Amino acid sequence: MDKRRVIRAALLGFGTVGSGVYLLASRLGEELVNKAGASLEIRRILVRNLDKKREGADPALFTDNWNEILEDEEIQIVIELMGGIEPARTYVSEALKAGKNVVTANKDLLAEYGGELLELAKQNGCDLMFEASVAGAVPIIRALKQSLAGAELTEVAGIVNGTTNYILTKMSEVSMDYRDALELAMKKGYAEADPTADVEGYDAGRKIAIMASIAFNSRVTFSQVPTEGITKITAKDIQYARDFGYVIKLLGIAKKEEDGIEVKVHPMLVPEDHPLASVRSSFNAVFVRGDACDEAMFMGRGAGKMPTASAVMGDVIDVMVNIIHGSCGRMGCTCYKNIPVKEEGSTMSKYFLRVQVSDRPGALANIAGVLGNNNVSIAQVYQKRSENGVAELVIITDRVMERNFNDSLTVIRGMTAMKEVSSVIRVY
Ligand code: NAP
Ligand code: HSE
Prior knowledge:
Elements: E1 6-12, H1 16-28, H2 31-36, E2 39-46, E3 62-63, H3 66-70, E4 75-80, H4 88-97, E5 101-104, H5 107-123, E6 128-129, H6 140-147, E7 153-159, H7 162-173, H8 178-187, H9 196-199, H10 202-215, H11 235-244, E8 246-257, E9 260-271, E10 283-290, E11 294-301, H12 305-325, E12 348-358, H13 363-373, E13 378-385, E14 390-397, E15 400-401, H14 402-413, E16 418-427
Parallel strand pairs: 1-2, 1-4, 2-3, 4-5, 5-6, 9-16
Antiparallel strand pairs: 7-8, 7-10, 8-9, 10-11, 12-14, 12-15, 12-16, 13-14
Helix pairs in contact: 1-12, 4-5, 5-10, 7-8, 13-14
The structure holds NADP nicotinamide-adenine-dinucleotide phosphate and L-homoserine.
Protein backbone atom coordinates (compact mmCIF):
# COMPACT_ATOMS: atom_id res chain seq x y z
CA MET A 1 0.00 0.00 0.00
CA ASP A 2 1.28 3.47 -0.91
CA LYS A 3 1.13 5.25 2.46
CA ARG A 4 1.79 8.62 0.84
CA ARG A 5 -1.34 8.56 -1.26
CA VAL A 6 -3.66 11.52 -0.65
CA ILE A 7 -7.25 11.71 -1.90
CA ARG A 8 -8.65 15.20 -2.22
CA ALA A 9 -12.22 16.19 -1.48
CA ALA A 10 -14.37 19.31 -1.28
CA LEU A 11 -17.15 20.04 1.17
CA LEU A 12 -20.24 21.82 -0.11
CA GLY A 13 -21.69 23.34 3.08
CA PHE A 14 -20.23 23.99 6.51
CA GLY A 15 -23.39 24.00 8.64
CA THR A 16 -24.43 21.43 11.25
CA VAL A 17 -23.35 18.40 9.21
CA GLY A 18 -20.58 19.95 7.10
CA SER A 19 -18.69 21.21 10.15
CA GLY A 20 -19.19 17.79 11.79
CA VAL A 21 -17.71 16.02 8.77
CA TYR A 22 -14.71 18.36 8.76
CA LEU A 23 -14.17 17.71 12.47
CA LEU A 24 -14.50 13.95 12.09
CA ALA A 25 -12.17 13.83 9.08
CA SER A 26 -9.59 15.81 11.07
CA ARG A 27 -10.07 13.55 14.09
CA LEU A 28 -9.58 10.42 11.99
CA GLY A 29 -6.42 11.92 10.46
CA GLU A 30 -3.83 9.30 9.63
CA GLU A 31 -6.20 6.54 10.83
CA LEU A 32 -7.77 6.94 7.39
CA VAL A 33 -4.62 5.45 5.89
CA ASN A 34 -5.41 2.23 7.77
CA LYS A 35 -9.15 2.37 7.09
CA ALA A 36 -9.12 3.53 3.49
CA GLY A 37 -5.56 3.16 2.21
CA ALA A 38 -4.95 6.89 1.78
CA SER A 39 -5.20 10.10 3.69
CA LEU A 40 -7.89 12.64 2.97
CA GLU A 41 -7.35 16.31 2.25
CA ILE A 42 -10.39 18.61 2.41
CA ARG A 43 -9.13 21.04 -0.16
CA ARG A 44 -12.06 23.50 -0.46
CA ILE A 45 -15.25 24.31 1.47
CA LEU A 46 -18.11 25.93 -0.41
CA VAL A 47 -20.44 28.21 1.58
CA ARG A 48 -23.06 30.80 0.74
CA ASN A 49 -21.85 33.60 2.96
CA LEU A 50 -18.09 34.16 3.14
CA ASP A 51 -18.51 36.85 5.82
CA LYS A 52 -19.96 34.44 8.39
CA LYS A 53 -17.64 33.70 11.31
CA ARG A 54 -16.53 30.04 11.09
CA GLU A 55 -14.74 27.97 13.67
CA GLY A 56 -12.74 24.79 13.28
CA ALA A 57 -11.34 25.16 9.76
CA ASP A 58 -8.66 27.25 8.06
CA PRO A 59 -10.36 30.40 6.63
CA ALA A 60 -8.30 29.98 3.45
CA LEU A 61 -10.30 26.83 2.58
CA PHE A 62 -13.60 28.67 2.20
CA THR A 63 -14.97 29.79 -1.14
CA ASP A 64 -18.32 30.87 -2.54
CA ASN A 65 -17.33 29.91 -6.08
CA TRP A 66 -18.45 26.42 -7.15
CA ASN A 67 -16.33 26.55 -10.30
CA GLU A 68 -13.13 26.59 -8.24
CA ILE A 69 -14.11 23.11 -7.03
CA LEU A 70 -15.54 21.83 -10.30
CA GLU A 71 -12.45 22.84 -12.25
CA ASP A 72 -9.94 21.45 -9.75
CA GLU A 73 -9.04 18.13 -11.36
CA GLU A 74 -7.34 16.88 -8.22
CA ILE A 75 -10.61 16.89 -6.27
CA GLN A 76 -12.02 13.36 -6.61
CA ILE A 77 -14.80 13.47 -4.01
CA VAL A 78 -17.50 16.13 -3.63
CA ILE A 79 -19.31 15.94 -0.28
CA GLU A 80 -22.62 17.75 -0.70
CA LEU A 81 -24.05 19.01 2.62
CA MET A 82 -25.91 22.15 1.56
CA GLY A 83 -29.40 20.61 1.40
CA GLY A 84 -32.37 21.53 -0.81
CA ILE A 85 -32.85 20.92 -4.52
CA GLU A 86 -31.05 23.84 -6.20
CA PRO A 87 -28.18 24.49 -6.58
CA ALA A 88 -27.43 21.03 -5.10
CA ARG A 89 -28.92 19.21 -8.13
CA THR A 90 -26.83 21.27 -10.57
CA TYR A 91 -23.60 20.95 -8.58
CA VAL A 92 -24.00 17.18 -8.04
CA SER A 93 -24.80 16.66 -11.75
CA GLU A 94 -21.83 18.76 -12.83
CA ALA A 95 -19.51 16.97 -10.41
CA LEU A 96 -20.58 13.54 -11.73
CA LYS A 97 -20.22 14.68 -15.35
CA ALA A 98 -16.70 15.83 -14.48
CA GLY A 99 -15.90 12.33 -13.17
CA LYS A 100 -15.98 13.30 -9.49
CA ASN A 101 -17.54 10.92 -6.95
CA VAL A 102 -20.30 12.34 -4.77
CA VAL A 103 -21.32 11.70 -1.17
CA THR A 104 -24.47 13.46 0.00
CA ALA A 105 -26.87 13.59 2.96
CA ASN A 106 -29.53 15.34 0.89
CA LYS A 107 -32.82 13.42 1.04
CA ASP A 108 -34.76 16.21 -0.68
CA LEU A 109 -32.55 15.72 -3.73
CA LEU A 110 -32.43 11.92 -3.65
CA ALA A 111 -36.15 11.44 -3.06
CA GLU A 112 -37.05 13.37 -6.21
CA TYR A 113 -34.01 13.09 -8.51
CA GLY A 114 -32.26 9.94 -7.25
CA GLY A 115 -32.98 8.06 -10.50
CA GLU A 116 -31.56 10.81 -12.72
CA LEU A 117 -28.44 11.29 -10.57
CA LEU A 118 -27.69 7.57 -10.22
CA GLU A 119 -27.95 7.27 -14.01
CA LEU A 120 -25.44 10.12 -14.38
CA ALA A 121 -23.12 8.40 -11.90
CA LYS A 122 -23.35 5.19 -13.92
CA GLN A 123 -22.66 6.95 -17.24
CA ASN A 124 -19.55 8.51 -15.74
CA GLY A 125 -18.30 5.49 -13.74
CA CYS A 126 -18.61 7.38 -10.45
CA ASP A 127 -19.89 6.62 -6.98
CA LEU A 128 -22.96 8.42 -5.68
CA MET A 129 -23.40 7.49 -2.02
CA PHE A 130 -26.12 8.75 0.30
CA GLU A 131 -26.14 6.71 3.52
CA ALA A 132 -26.68 9.83 5.68
CA SER A 133 -29.80 10.84 3.75
CA VAL A 134 -31.92 8.36 5.75
CA ALA A 135 -31.80 7.87 9.53
CA GLY A 136 -28.45 9.57 10.17
CA ALA A 137 -25.94 7.18 11.70
CA VAL A 138 -28.15 4.11 11.16
CA PRO A 139 -26.63 2.13 8.26
CA ILE A 140 -29.93 1.37 6.54
CA ILE A 141 -29.10 2.21 2.91
CA ARG A 142 -26.23 -0.29 2.81
CA ALA A 143 -28.33 -2.84 4.70
CA LEU A 144 -31.17 -2.60 2.16
CA LYS A 145 -28.92 -2.41 -0.90
CA GLN A 146 -26.33 -5.01 0.02
CA SER A 147 -26.80 -7.00 3.22
CA LEU A 148 -30.49 -7.79 2.55
CA ALA A 149 -30.18 -8.17 -1.23
CA GLY A 150 -30.74 -11.91 -0.91
CA ALA A 151 -34.21 -11.51 0.58
CA GLU A 152 -37.43 -10.38 -1.05
CA LEU A 153 -38.52 -7.51 1.16
CA THR A 154 -42.22 -6.89 1.72
CA GLU A 155 -42.29 -4.13 4.35
CA VAL A 156 -40.16 -1.24 5.55
CA ALA A 157 -41.53 0.78 8.47
CA GLY A 158 -39.48 3.48 10.07
CA ILE A 159 -39.28 6.14 12.71
CA VAL A 160 -37.05 8.23 10.47
CA ASN A 161 -37.50 11.74 11.79
CA GLY A 162 -35.62 12.54 14.98
CA THR A 163 -37.37 15.86 15.59
CA THR A 164 -40.89 14.41 15.69
CA ASN A 165 -39.82 11.37 17.70
CA TYR A 166 -38.20 13.73 20.20
CA ILE A 167 -41.36 15.88 20.39
CA LEU A 168 -43.72 12.88 20.79
CA THR A 169 -41.44 11.37 23.46
CA LYS A 170 -41.36 14.62 25.44
CA MET A 171 -45.15 15.07 25.12
CA SER A 172 -45.74 11.49 26.20
CA GLU A 173 -43.18 11.06 28.97
CA VAL A 174 -42.96 14.46 30.67
CA SER A 175 -46.21 16.04 29.41
CA MET A 176 -44.20 18.74 27.64
CA ASP A 177 -46.12 21.17 25.48
CA TYR A 178 -45.71 20.63 21.69
CA ARG A 179 -44.16 24.09 21.09
CA ASP A 180 -41.59 23.75 23.90
CA ALA A 181 -40.56 20.31 22.66
CA LEU A 182 -40.16 21.60 19.08
CA GLU A 183 -38.04 24.51 20.30
CA LEU A 184 -35.77 22.09 22.19
CA ALA A 185 -35.43 19.84 19.12
CA MET A 186 -34.41 22.88 17.08
CA LYS A 187 -31.83 23.93 19.67
CA LYS A 188 -30.30 20.44 19.60
CA GLY A 189 -29.79 20.67 15.82
CA TYR A 190 -32.23 17.83 14.95
CA ALA A 191 -34.73 19.95 13.03
CA GLU A 192 -34.44 21.19 9.46
CA ALA A 193 -33.82 24.93 8.97
CA ASP A 194 -37.60 25.20 8.44
CA PRO A 195 -39.09 22.58 10.82
CA THR A 196 -42.30 22.40 8.76
CA ALA A 197 -40.65 19.54 6.83
CA ASP A 198 -40.18 17.64 10.09
CA VAL A 199 -43.52 18.19 11.79
CA GLU A 200 -45.65 17.82 8.64
CA GLY A 201 -44.01 14.51 7.69
CA TYR A 202 -42.28 15.69 4.49
CA ASP A 203 -38.82 14.77 5.79
CA ALA A 204 -40.02 11.27 6.69
CA GLY A 205 -41.81 11.11 3.31
CA ARG A 206 -38.54 11.73 1.48
CA LYS A 207 -36.78 9.08 3.53
CA ILE A 208 -39.45 6.41 3.03
CA ALA A 209 -39.42 7.15 -0.74
CA ILE A 210 -35.66 6.50 -0.80
CA MET A 211 -35.95 3.32 1.29
CA ALA A 212 -38.93 1.94 -0.66
CA SER A 213 -37.08 2.44 -3.96
CA ILE A 214 -34.16 0.39 -2.70
CA ALA A 215 -36.15 -2.23 -0.77
CA PHE A 216 -38.50 -3.07 -3.66
CA ASN A 217 -36.05 -2.35 -6.54
CA SER A 218 -38.58 0.05 -8.04
CA ARG A 219 -38.42 3.86 -8.06
CA VAL A 220 -40.73 5.68 -5.61
CA THR A 221 -40.51 9.47 -5.52
CA PHE A 222 -41.50 11.83 -2.72
CA SER A 223 -44.35 13.23 -4.82
CA GLN A 224 -45.99 9.77 -4.65
CA VAL A 225 -45.98 9.64 -0.83
CA PRO A 226 -49.11 10.92 1.00
CA THR A 227 -47.93 12.60 4.20
CA GLU A 228 -49.54 13.63 7.44
CA GLY A 229 -47.57 15.14 10.33
CA ILE A 230 -47.90 15.31 14.11
CA THR A 231 -49.31 18.82 14.54
CA LYS A 232 -52.81 17.56 15.40
CA ILE A 233 -51.72 15.02 18.01
CA THR A 234 -52.92 16.04 21.48
CA ALA A 235 -52.03 15.02 25.03
CA LYS A 236 -55.46 13.37 25.19
CA ASP A 237 -54.69 11.15 22.17
CA ILE A 238 -51.43 10.13 23.79
CA GLN A 239 -53.24 9.27 27.03
CA TYR A 240 -55.96 7.22 25.28
CA ALA A 241 -53.33 5.42 23.22
CA ARG A 242 -51.55 4.49 26.44
CA ASP A 243 -54.82 3.25 28.00
CA PHE A 244 -55.39 1.00 24.97
CA GLY A 245 -51.78 -0.32 25.09
CA TYR A 246 -50.19 1.81 22.36
CA VAL A 247 -47.69 4.62 21.87
CA ILE A 248 -48.02 7.24 19.14
CA LYS A 249 -45.15 7.43 16.61
CA LEU A 250 -44.71 9.15 13.26
CA LEU A 251 -44.06 6.27 10.86
CA GLY A 252 -42.98 6.11 7.25
CA ILE A 253 -44.39 2.86 5.91
CA ALA A 254 -43.89 1.07 2.60
CA LYS A 255 -45.36 -2.33 1.78
CA LYS A 256 -45.13 -4.42 -1.34
CA GLU A 257 -48.59 -5.87 -2.04
CA GLU A 258 -49.66 -8.05 -4.98
CA ASP A 259 -51.16 -5.06 -6.81
CA GLY A 260 -48.43 -2.50 -6.13
CA ILE A 261 -46.45 -0.55 -3.55
CA GLU A 262 -48.28 1.05 -0.66
CA VAL A 263 -46.36 3.98 0.77
CA LYS A 264 -47.26 6.76 3.22
CA VAL A 265 -46.28 8.77 6.29
CA HIS A 266 -48.58 9.42 9.22
CA PRO A 267 -48.77 9.25 12.98
CA MET A 268 -49.75 5.78 14.17
CA LEU A 269 -50.71 3.99 17.34
CA VAL A 270 -47.98 1.36 17.68
CA PRO A 271 -48.62 -1.58 20.05
CA GLU A 272 -46.43 -1.25 23.14
CA ASP A 273 -44.83 -4.64 22.51
CA HIS A 274 -43.69 -3.82 18.94
CA PRO A 275 -39.94 -3.06 18.72
CA LEU A 276 -40.66 0.37 17.16
CA ALA A 277 -42.65 1.41 20.26
CA SER A 278 -39.52 1.45 22.42
CA VAL A 279 -37.62 3.86 20.14
CA ARG A 280 -37.47 7.08 22.15
CA SER A 281 -36.14 10.63 21.97
CA SER A 282 -34.32 11.57 18.74
CA PHE A 283 -33.47 7.94 17.99
CA ASN A 284 -34.52 6.53 14.62
CA ALA A 285 -35.32 2.92 13.79
CA VAL A 286 -36.23 1.02 10.66
CA PHE A 287 -38.15 -2.25 10.87
CA VAL A 288 -37.84 -4.53 7.85
CA ARG A 289 -39.78 -7.64 6.91
CA GLY A 290 -38.87 -10.07 4.13
CA ASP A 291 -39.07 -13.70 3.09
CA ALA A 292 -35.64 -15.16 3.81
CA CYS A 293 -34.55 -12.57 6.38
CA ASP A 294 -37.83 -12.59 8.36
CA GLU A 295 -37.87 -9.49 10.63
CA ALA A 296 -34.98 -7.14 11.38
CA MET A 297 -34.70 -3.74 13.06
CA PHE A 298 -31.96 -1.12 12.73
CA MET A 299 -31.75 1.62 15.34
CA GLY A 300 -29.55 4.57 16.21
CA ARG A 301 -29.09 8.33 16.17
CA GLY A 302 -31.02 9.68 13.22
CA ALA A 303 -30.06 13.34 13.37
CA GLY A 304 -27.49 15.78 14.70
CA LYS A 305 -24.00 16.90 13.83
CA MET A 306 -21.75 13.95 14.69
CA PRO A 307 -24.15 11.00 14.04
CA THR A 308 -24.83 12.34 10.55
CA ALA A 309 -21.15 13.09 10.02
CA SER A 310 -20.41 9.47 10.98
CA ALA A 311 -22.60 8.16 8.13
CA VAL A 312 -21.10 10.67 5.67
CA MET A 313 -17.54 9.64 6.60
CA GLY A 314 -18.47 5.96 6.22
CA ASP A 315 -19.43 6.74 2.62
CA VAL A 316 -16.31 8.84 2.07
CA ILE A 317 -14.12 5.96 3.26
CA ASP A 318 -15.99 3.57 0.94
CA VAL A 319 -15.41 5.91 -2.02
CA MET A 320 -11.72 6.23 -1.09
CA VAL A 321 -11.36 2.45 -1.11
CA ASN A 322 -13.09 2.31 -4.51
CA ILE A 323 -10.77 5.00 -5.87
CA ILE A 324 -7.74 3.05 -4.69
CA HIS A 325 -9.03 -0.20 -6.21
CA GLY A 326 -10.25 1.49 -9.40
CA SER A 327 -13.79 0.27 -8.74
CA CYS A 328 -15.90 3.43 -8.50
CA GLY A 329 -19.49 3.05 -9.78
CA ARG A 330 -19.60 -0.58 -8.58
CA MET A 331 -22.86 -0.10 -6.67
CA GLY A 332 -25.27 2.01 -8.69
CA CYS A 333 -29.02 2.22 -9.09
CA THR A 334 -30.86 -0.95 -8.03
CA CYS A 335 -34.31 0.03 -9.37
CA TYR A 336 -34.62 -2.55 -12.15
CA LYS A 337 -38.39 -3.15 -11.68
CA ASN A 338 -41.34 -0.93 -12.45
CA ILE A 339 -43.97 -1.63 -9.79
CA PRO A 340 -46.93 0.79 -9.62
CA VAL A 341 -47.46 2.86 -6.48
CA LYS A 342 -51.00 2.32 -5.15
CA GLU A 343 -53.43 5.23 -5.05
CA GLU A 344 -54.33 6.86 -1.76
CA GLY A 345 -57.55 5.34 -0.40
CA SER A 346 -57.00 1.91 -1.95
CA THR A 347 -54.82 0.82 0.95
CA MET A 348 -55.87 -0.91 4.20
CA SER A 349 -55.57 0.48 7.74
CA LYS A 350 -56.85 0.15 11.26
CA TYR A 351 -58.13 3.43 12.76
CA PHE A 352 -58.43 5.16 16.13
CA LEU A 353 -61.39 7.57 16.02
CA ARG A 354 -62.16 10.04 18.83
CA VAL A 355 -65.40 12.05 18.60
CA GLN A 356 -67.59 14.28 20.77
CA VAL A 357 -71.35 13.54 20.47
CA SER A 358 -74.55 14.71 22.16
CA ASP A 359 -75.05 12.34 25.06
CA ARG A 360 -78.43 10.95 23.98
CA PRO A 361 -79.82 7.48 23.20
CA GLY A 362 -78.85 6.07 19.84
CA ALA A 363 -75.76 8.25 19.19
CA LEU A 364 -73.30 5.36 19.46
CA ALA A 365 -75.65 3.03 17.56
CA ASN A 366 -75.91 5.54 14.70
CA ILE A 367 -72.12 5.85 14.39
CA ALA A 368 -71.72 2.06 14.54
CA GLY A 369 -74.43 1.78 11.85
CA VAL A 370 -72.64 4.19 9.50
CA LEU A 371 -69.36 2.34 9.95
CA GLY A 372 -71.07 -1.01 9.40
CA ASN A 373 -72.86 0.22 6.26
CA ASN A 374 -69.45 1.12 4.83
CA ASN A 375 -67.89 -2.24 5.66
CA VAL A 376 -65.87 -0.83 8.56
CA SER A 377 -65.92 -3.24 11.48
CA ILE A 378 -65.29 -2.07 15.04
CA ALA A 379 -62.67 -3.76 17.23
CA GLN A 380 -62.97 -1.70 20.46
CA VAL A 381 -65.18 1.10 21.83
CA TYR A 382 -64.79 3.31 24.88
CA GLN A 383 -67.26 5.95 26.06
CA LYS A 384 -66.59 8.67 28.62
CA ARG A 385 -69.59 10.71 29.82
CA SER A 386 -68.90 14.40 30.41
CA GLU A 387 -70.94 16.84 32.48
CA ASN A 388 -72.28 19.18 29.81
CA GLY A 389 -74.29 16.64 27.85
CA VAL A 390 -71.46 15.80 25.48
CA ALA A 391 -69.97 12.31 25.50
CA GLU A 392 -66.54 11.41 24.22
CA LEU A 393 -66.43 8.22 22.15
CA VAL A 394 -63.26 6.40 21.19
CA ILE A 395 -63.49 3.67 18.56
CA ILE A 396 -60.74 1.43 17.23
CA THR A 397 -61.61 -0.33 13.97
CA ASP A 398 -60.38 -3.54 12.41
CA ARG A 399 -58.19 -3.34 9.26
CA VAL A 400 -60.41 -1.72 6.65
CA MET A 401 -60.18 -0.18 3.20
CA GLU A 402 -59.17 3.47 3.77
CA ARG A 403 -61.68 4.66 1.18
CA ASN A 404 -64.53 2.97 3.11
CA PHE A 405 -63.42 4.56 6.36
CA ASN A 406 -63.21 8.01 4.74
CA ASP A 407 -66.71 7.58 3.26
CA SER A 408 -68.13 6.74 6.70
CA LEU A 409 -66.29 9.69 8.24
CA THR A 410 -67.99 12.06 5.80
CA VAL A 411 -71.41 10.79 6.93
CA ILE A 412 -70.41 10.80 10.64
CA ARG A 413 -69.25 14.43 10.42
CA GLY A 414 -72.70 15.41 9.14
CA MET A 415 -74.74 13.63 11.86
CA THR A 416 -76.95 15.90 13.98
CA ALA A 417 -75.59 14.41 17.23
CA MET A 418 -71.97 15.03 16.13
CA LYS A 419 -70.25 17.90 17.96
CA GLU A 420 -66.68 17.30 16.81
CA VAL A 421 -64.46 14.70 15.19
CA SER A 422 -61.46 15.25 17.47
CA SER A 423 -58.92 12.74 16.14
CA VAL A 424 -58.44 10.19 13.40
CA ILE A 425 -55.18 8.27 13.75
CA ARG A 426 -54.16 5.04 12.04
CA VAL A 427 -53.17 2.00 14.08
CA TYR A 428 -50.15 -0.15 13.15
P1 NAP B 1 -27.25 23.74 7.56
O1 NAP B 1 -26.79 23.70 8.95
O2 NAP B 1 -28.34 24.67 7.18
O3 NAP B 1 -25.97 24.04 6.63
C1 NAP B 1 -26.04 24.25 5.26
C2 NAP B 1 -24.69 24.72 4.75
O4 NAP B 1 -24.75 24.76 3.34
C3 NAP B 1 -24.28 26.09 5.24
O5 NAP B 1 -22.89 26.14 5.51
C4 NAP B 1 -24.59 27.00 4.03
O6 NAP B 1 -23.72 28.10 3.88
C5 NAP B 1 -24.35 26.06 2.88
N1 NAP B 1 -25.17 26.41 1.72
C6 NAP B 1 -26.52 26.41 1.62
N2 NAP B 1 -26.90 26.82 0.40
C7 NAP B 1 -25.77 27.09 -0.29
C8 NAP B 1 -25.50 27.57 -1.58
N3 NAP B 1 -26.49 27.87 -2.43
N4 NAP B 1 -24.22 27.73 -1.96
C9 NAP B 1 -23.20 27.44 -1.09
N5 NAP B 1 -23.40 26.99 0.16
C10 NAP B 1 -24.66 26.82 0.56
O7 NAP B 1 -27.74 22.29 7.08
P2 NAP B 1 -27.40 20.87 7.77
O8 NAP B 1 -28.32 20.64 8.90
O9 NAP B 1 -25.96 20.76 7.97
O10 NAP B 1 -27.90 19.86 6.60
C11 NAP B 1 -27.11 19.61 5.48
C12 NAP B 1 -27.71 18.42 4.73
O11 NAP B 1 -27.68 17.26 5.55
C13 NAP B 1 -29.16 18.60 4.32
O12 NAP B 1 -29.38 17.94 3.09
C14 NAP B 1 -29.92 17.88 5.43
O13 NAP B 1 -31.19 17.44 5.04
C15 NAP B 1 -28.99 16.72 5.66
N6 NAP B 1 -29.11 16.09 6.97
C16 NAP B 1 -29.06 16.85 8.09
C17 NAP B 1 -29.15 16.22 9.33
C18 NAP B 1 -29.10 17.01 10.61
O14 NAP B 1 -29.25 16.41 11.67
N7 NAP B 1 -28.90 18.33 10.56
C19 NAP B 1 -29.24 14.84 9.40
C20 NAP B 1 -29.25 14.08 8.22
C21 NAP B 1 -29.18 14.72 7.00
P3 NAP B 1 -23.70 29.31 4.95
O15 NAP B 1 -23.05 28.73 6.17
O16 NAP B 1 -22.87 30.36 4.30
O17 NAP B 1 -25.13 29.70 5.18
N1 HSE C 1 -34.57 16.96 10.58
C1 HSE C 1 -34.19 15.60 10.47
C2 HSE C 1 -34.72 14.82 11.66
C3 HSE C 1 -32.69 15.49 10.39
O1 HSE C 1 -35.24 15.44 12.60
O2 HSE C 1 -34.65 13.61 11.65
C4 HSE C 1 -32.25 14.19 9.85
O3 HSE C 1 -32.55 14.06 8.50
